[in-house]
Please model this.
Amino acid sequence: MSGDPEQEYFADGIVEDIITALSRFKSLFVIARNSSFTFKSRAVDIKEVGRRLGVRYVLEGSVRKASGKVRIAGQLIDAVTGAHLWADRFERDLTDIFALQDEVTIAVVSAIEPKMLQTEIAMATRRRPENLTAYDFYLRAMPQFYLTTREGLAEAIRLFHRALELDPGFARAASMAGVCHNANVLFGYANDPQFDRKEAVRLV
Model:
């Protein structure tokens, strides 16, 4: 929404994190990133989205980052009836981005399942990276990873390792770097397949 194409990686990363958090709830069937992202930035009929994805509810919204703040606007829609079940706007300082993601996740789950157990909400939380700059490198790396090209994977590995330099305990960055090394072998990009195999195992 900012009009800055450089922010697309940030918005995509935030959305992917929310998808991942929602998928941790055993009572929910959540569509994966690749399928849901086919509707990104398109004006679509919610009922058609529901039919094509085989879902009852659709969460749509926007992410905007400006002046050190992040704003997420979202609405939950019944894909069968088209009725709005919930809508809200969340705004926090950029330093509170992970708390913001949790607020959105819990609000959505509560709209679908008012009696959601507190233990499941606790299960949906995950270890945060200690360093926001490391998290930014991680978000920049993800679209490079999804390109699945030789150059894209090389750039993703470089960015994941930059994240790990800043936060050696950042598990998601380490595991994704390992996945990239594995992909180098699978796609035939590796100059030294044995090295990539060992790195994949070490990092994962």
